[in-house]
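Hello Y.,

Per our agreement to keep a running log of every chain we model this quarter, I'm adding this entry. I've kept the format consistent with earlier entries: sequence first, then predicted structure.
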Amino acid sequence: MYGRLAGVPLIALALLLAASQAHAALAQAWPPFVLVTGLLLIGLVAGRDGLFEAAASRLVRLPGSPTLLLLACLALVCGVTALLNLDTAAVFLTPVLLEVGRRRGLQAAPFLYGAVFMANSSSLFLPGSNLTNLLVLSDGRVTGASFFVGMLPFALAAPALTAAGLVLIHRRALSVAVAPVAGQRSSLRFGASLWAALLAAALIVLLRNAALPVLAVGLALAAWRARGGQLAWREALAWLGLPALASLFGLAVALGTLARASSFPAELLRSADAPTTTAVAALASVALNNLPAAVLLSAGRRAHVGALLLGLNVGPNLAVSGSLAVLLWWRAARAAGVRPSALAYARQGLLLAPVAIAASLAIGAGVRSPYA
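Predicted structure for the entry above:
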């Protein structure tokens, strides 16, 4: 009897410890998911306002070769990814880039795969550019401005090398013309959605935790458009994909709790060098999706934060299972009448991702980035 009673405090202590670890994992995971919800709402209204279509209309009128047109499209993806996030860029810019290619009489492949590879590679500029950045930096001790400065070598190198690789891979497709499709011109207007996007970007840069303010901006913008009959809440909820977000959130919390209860991931990255850290993060992204992988690998102390983020953000270019943005890109491409190929994605990604990662690591170490 005494032995049984003596075990009760131990069980209670274990339960309290598990609850504490789960609470810590929950505290780490919720801000990024709240932030991306706000950003996706802003992106939804921006898309309905024709903001991205106006950009496409301007891109189509650019003079120059198909290669220059593709590079301009990739630059647009890079900018939207940095300011909003890669999920918004993947969903809204995929059909835009496909439309640009159609209007100029070019094959779809360079614009289709360029949209998603560039979105993943360009998500290292700001914390809100990718959920993984927010998950890894969940302690709130890094501002958006300091993150931008510290990650700049990686943030510039990865998309630049990815864009160069895409041009080389698709150089033949860019030289083959097909029948162009006529489209209407649309002008760029400085409306509420554009100002909301700029405000969200400013909040992410200035605040340590911009999740709730950005969500408030997104909800206010959506509510304004819903009140005017320009947006239905049912459509907004369907666009957010709450079941998928909730599933990834639950998996992230579960893995975060597991990581805090076990020393294996923390010990592995604590002693690993930058290339090993990046490789582990990239492989974990492909195996688990980069959001749960970010929580799992960031529970303990990390010696190379930049290398970890490089693997989590650019690593998903290796396979379609790597990130939520790839799944959203796949859905957007199918809705635009194009059928992506997982095999074609992997073939290109196996060429693009390792080169971008290796060169980014070398550049980051060469300029002595604080995150290298």
